[in-house]
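TICKET: design request
STATUS: open
ATTACHED STRUCTURE:
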C-alpha cells in the first residue's frame, strides 16, 4: 500500500502544471501589462532619441526663418553722444582768408556731438540667399526623414529586447516548475530513504539536481533583470517599473516572402538622397560667390553739435540740430578671389561624388539585408517545425516513461533523464521561436514596414 501511495505522489509531483506556476509568478510580480505595441508606443513618446529627432524637425523651421530673414529688409536705429575734450586742428592755406603765403591752424568741430538715425538695407539680388532658402527647406525634409529613421531604430531595438525578455521569462518559468517538482521528489525520496525504501545514491542524485537547478535559476533571474533593464532603457522607462508580458505576444505569424522591396523607397536610402541634395545646394551656394550682389541702402539721421551737451538745449546756447539722409545702391562684382572660391566648389563636388558612392553601397547593403532576412526566416520556420515536433515527441516519451515507472518498468534515473530532455526541448523550442521573431523583425525592417508594429 505504501509503495502504491509513493508512486502516486511521485507521479503527481512530476506532472505538476507549469502554467499554474507561471500565473502565480505573474500575480506576485504585479506591475504594468505590456504588449509589444504598448512598449513601442511608450518608447516613441518617451525615449530621448525620439524627442531629439522631433526637436530637430522643429529647429529646421527656425533655420528656414533665419535664411528667409536675409531676403527681408534690415532696419536698425542708432544713436550716439560724443564729448571731445581736445578738438583736432587742421592746417590750411591762409590764402583762403586773404593771407597768401601763410598757414592757419584751425579747429573744426564742437566739444559735444550727438546723433540719432534710422538705417535700412534691402537685398535686391544675392544668389547665395536664394540658394540658401532652398537648402533650408531641404534641411527640414532631411530632419523629417531622419525622424522616421530614428523611430524605426527605436522600434527595432524595443522589439528585439522585448522578445529577449519574454524568452528569458519562459526559461525561468520552466526552471521554477522543474525546481518545484524536483523538490517534491527529493522530499518523497527522503521519507522513503528514512524508511529504508530508497537508496542513498538516488537521494543524492536528486539533491545534486536540485542544487544545479537552483544555480541555473539564479543565473536566469539575473539575465531577466538585465534584459528588462535594457528593454526599459530603450523604452525610456524608469527601471523600477515592474512589467508583465502577455503570452500571446510570442505567437508565430508567417510573413510573406515573395514581396521584393524597392530599397530606394526605404528611409536609409532616402536620407542619403536628401543629404546629396543638400550637398548640391552647398555647391551652388559656393558657386554663387562668383555672381554680383546688389542691395539698396537708405538712412535718415539727426545731428546736434555745440559747446554743451546737445540734449534739451536751445540754439541760444550755441547748440544746433540738423538732419540729413541718403539713399544708395550698392553693387559688388567679384573679379578675382585668389582661386579660393574655385577650390571650395571643387571640394563640394568631391563631397557629392563621395556620397554617391555611399548611395551605391547602401543600396547593395539594403538588398543584402532583405536577402539575408528572407534566408533567416526560411531557416527559422524549418527550425521551429523541427523543435515543435521534438517537443511533442519529448512530451510523449515523458508520459510513457511515467507510465512505465508507475508499473515498475522504468527506474527513477530514467524518469529524471526524460524530464530533463523534455525541459531542454521546451527551451530549444522557445529559442527557435525567438530566433524566428528576430528574423521577422529584420525582414519587416528590410521592407520598410517596421511602423506596422506600432
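STATUS: resolved
RESOLUTION: sequence designed for all positions
ATTACHED SEQUENCE:
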Amino acid at each position: 500500500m505504501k509503495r502504491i501511495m509513493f508512486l502516486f505522489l511521485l507521479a503527481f509531483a512530476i506532472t505538476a502544471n507549469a502554467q499554474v506556476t507561471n500565473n502565480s509568478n505573474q500575480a506576485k510580480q504585479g506591475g504594468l501589462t505590456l504588449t509589444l505595441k504598448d512598449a513601442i508606443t511608450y518608447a516613441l513618446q518617451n525615449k530621448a532619441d525620439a524627442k531629439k529627432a522631433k526637436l530637430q524637425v522643429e529647429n529646421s523651421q527656425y533655420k528656414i526663418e533665419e535664411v528667409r530673414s536675409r531676403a527681408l529688409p534690415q532696419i536698425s536705429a542708432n544713436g550716439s553722444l560724443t564729448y571731445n575734450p581736445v578738438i583736432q586742428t587742421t592746417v590750411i592755406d591762409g590764402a583762403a582768408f586773404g593771407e597768401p603765403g601763410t598757414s592757419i591752424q584751425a579747429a573744426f568741430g564742437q566739444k559735444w556731438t550727438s546723433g540719432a538715425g534710422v538705417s535700412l538695407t534691402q537685398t535686391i539680388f544675392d544668389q547665395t540667399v536664394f540658394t540658401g532658402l532652398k537648402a533650408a527647406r531641404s534641411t527640414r525634409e532631411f530632419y523629417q526623414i531622419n525622424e522616421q529613421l530614428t523611430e524605426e531604430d527605436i522600434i527595432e531595438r524595443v522589439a528585439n529586447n522585448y522578445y529577449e525578455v519574454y524568452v528569458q521569462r519562459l526559461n525561468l518559468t520552466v526552471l521554477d516548475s522543474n525546481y518545484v517538482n524536483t523538490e517534491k521528489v527529493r522530499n518523497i525520496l527522503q521519507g522513503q530513504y528514512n524508511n529504508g525504501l530508497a537508496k542513498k545514491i538516488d537521494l543524492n542524485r536528486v539533491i545534486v539536481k536540485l542544487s544545479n537547478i537552483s544555480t541555473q535559476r539564479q543565473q536566469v533571474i539575473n539575465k531577466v533583470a538585465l534584459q528588462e533593464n535594457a528593454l526599459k532603457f530603450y523604452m525610456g522607462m524608469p527601471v523600477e517599473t515592474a512589467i508583465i508580458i502577455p503570452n500571446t505576444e510570442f505567437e508565430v505569424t508567417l510573413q510573406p516572402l515573395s514581396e521584393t522591396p524597392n530599397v530606394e523607397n526605404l528611409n536609409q536610402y532616402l536620407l542619403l538622397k536628401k543629404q546629396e541634395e543638400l550637398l548640391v545646394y552647398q555647391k551652388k551656394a559656393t558657386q554663387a560667390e562668383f555672381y554680383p550682389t546688389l542691395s539698396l541702402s537708405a538712412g535718415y539721421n539727426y545731428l546736434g553739435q555745440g559747446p554743451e551737451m546737445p540734449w534739451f538745449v536751445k540754439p541760444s546756447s550755441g547748440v544746433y540740430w540738423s538732419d540729413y539722409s541718403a539713399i544708395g545702391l550698392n553693387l559688388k562684382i567679384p573679379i578675382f578671389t585668389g582661386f579660393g572660391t574655385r577650390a571650395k566648389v571643387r571640394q563640394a563636388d568631391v563631397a557629392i561624388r563621395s556620397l554617391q558612392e555611399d548611395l551605391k553601397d547602401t543600396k547593395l547593403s539594403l538588398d543584402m539585408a532583405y536577402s539575408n532576412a528572407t534566408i533567416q526566416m526560411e531557416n527559422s520556420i524549418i527550425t521551429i517545425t523541427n523543435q515543435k515536433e521534438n517537443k511533442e515527441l519529448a512530451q510523449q516519451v515523458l508520459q510513457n516513461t511515467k507510465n512505465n515507472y508507475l508499473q515498475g518498468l522504468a527506474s527513477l534515473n530514467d524518469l529524471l533523464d526524460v524530464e530533463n530532455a523534455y525541459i531542454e526541448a521546451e527551451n530549444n523550442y522557445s529559442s527557435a521561436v525567438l530566433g524566428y521573431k528576430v528574423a521577422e523583425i529584420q525582414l519587416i525592417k528590410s521592407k520598410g514596414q517596421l511602423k506596422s508594429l506600432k
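CLOSING REMARK: The chain has two domains: 2-70+136-290+336-453, 74-125+292-333. Residues 127-194 form the longest helix (68 residues).
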